[in-house]
Hints:
By secondary structure, the protein is mainly alpha-helical. It has helices spanning about 5-15, 15-25, 40-50, 55-65, 80-89; strands at about 30, 35-40. Mean pLDDT is about 80; it is low at about 70-75 and about 85-89.
Amino acid sequence: xxxxxxxxxxxxxxxxxxxxxxxxxxxxxxxxxxxxxxxxxxxxxxxxxxxxxxxxxxxxxxxxxxxxxxxxxxxxxxxxxxxxxxxxx
Length: 89
């Protein structure tokens, strides 16, 4: 599996706010009550434009079954503001 590719992709997202903004705008939708919904197919395709190769299964595995990518997680904030906080640490 290309779990390393998923982790590497998310490391780039955390370090480059312009890439994260494009990721956020292209791969997420705001749902009811302020929730965010992510399209795994769009994420896989978006990552591929930067040379990362992984499947939707590998992506969801990293999301739900492996160690957290970041220990800083505030549910009350949208992901973009969380990234800005991580980038300044």
